[in-house]
Amino acid sequence: MRQRTMMLLEGADRLINKLGRYLLVAVFAFCLLCLFKIQVIQGASWETPAFVLGSMGVLIGLFLLFKLSLLKLSDRQALLLLTVLALVFFSFWNFVFRPVPVSDYKVLLEGARDIVDGTFKSQAAQPDNYFRYYNFQIGYAYYLSLIMRLFGDRLLFFKIIEMLVMTATTLVLYKTFRLFCDVHRSVFGAGVFTLFPYVFIGVGIINNQHEGLLLEALAIYFILKRRSWPNLLIAAVCIAIAQVLRPTAVVVAAAIIVTLMIQTIQQKSRQRLLETAAFIVTCWGLGWITNKLFILSGVAPYGIKVGNPYFKFLIGLTGKGVSGKYTTSARKTQLYYDLKEYHFNYALYKQAAAEKLKNVLIHGVNLQDIMNRFTGFIGNVDNQYYLGGNEQFMNRHPVLISSLNFAGMVVYGGTVLGTFKRVITEKWVTSRTSYLLPAVVFGMFFFAYIFMETQARYRFELYYVLFLLAVPTIYGWLTTLQEKMFTLDSSKDSR
């Protein structure tokens, strides 16, 4: 019986490797095709100045960071260097761009002020209130209220904390690289991440993506670190807290669970199976306790878990909600108008939304619309800078914004290409967790967003795992390029 079980597990491992490899090749080939279609065939309207300045910025940045990475640094020196680089660069950009809260981020800060003032509880109970139908945003508003209690409501303090959070994310990325790379590659990867336009361009925006990514990055780090119960439980705690601030953390949690299950099969380990169960129980248990505490406190009378689960799928599959009306402001969104259609009777709305979703799935969806939307999600320019709120700056400096966007797309496309090169050369998916986990995280987000509402700025978590996957390959390309140039120079000198 034991021998038969082992044979089944070995067969399952081979099958997972084969299917996983084909699936990853298909996913990243699709991403490259999306980028090629939108940025090349359709011809994204890049003006010559943006093309030239963006290209020069990428080339100069890569050259300087590559040369910097060649220095012989200890881990402590590397962390100090990256900290200074991130803080100086993020501070400079904040000083230049001067973002102000708009849209949802303005509403979240207003909610935080109401929590501090003690007026939030009555508002959150009203059926037509933003924090009633988007109750999952209460966790982040509460986090902002804690900052407000400590430092006051000056925007400067929130921006400083956002910069510190993103600096910490850079350092976690470096430490994660160090688990499977040398100091040189780690400094290079973390440095490029710091100067990546789609990271720093939104660093002064009060955004739950920043805190969520830091906690998700920590969870990935502790899963990849030396296998131990404390590391596993710390990762579970990070995911549970991230889920309070940003619901998409559940995707990372699912990816970790899938990774642990694959390792259970690959290693034929009962211990790994127990660890998987412990991770699930810890995440679920902490989430349940946190939700109950919010309810008991009165801050979230209806909890902080997503209260309208069908809405995102309706938008993703049909482009509109049950009412057919579109967003007019941060507080009056498509979901607001859908609920208004049913007089804010949440039970009736959920029933209607579920029925419409069922009809869509039974009678078929418009695959052309879904493909156009998803292709745009993968291949379009990241739109997060629009949420900076400083329209005057963008109107005065269109060439700068276009150049940064072009540079961002070049780096993003480079990480996709580097990852594609890696997935077609890696023969075994399950043998190294440092490859398996980031790949599963990317795949989970990729397939989740096929069916859900998407915007290009939702790629934020994907950038992080793309760097984990692509940097070793990209650094290898640069090293080869340097060696060839050095050899060429030497041969000329000898002649």
TrEMBL record:
GO terms for biological process: lipopolysaccharide biosynthetic process. InterPro entries: LipidA_mod_glycosyltrf_83, RgtA/B/C-like. The chain crosses the membrane at residues 21-42, 48-66, 78-96, 155-174, 186-206, 232-262, 399-420, 432-450, 462-478. It is a multi-pass membrane protein. Keywords: Cell membrane, Glycosyltransferase, Membrane, Transferase, Transmembrane, Transmembrane helix. GO terms for molecular function: pentosyltransferase activity. The keyword S-adenosyl-L-methionine does not apply. It comes from the Bacteria. GO terms for cellular component: plasma membrane. It is found in: Cell membrane. Residues 140-280 form the Glycosyltransferase RgtA/B/C/D-like domain. This is Glycosyltransferase family 39 protein. The lineage of its organism: Bacteria, Bacillati, Bacillota, Bacilli, Lactobacillales.
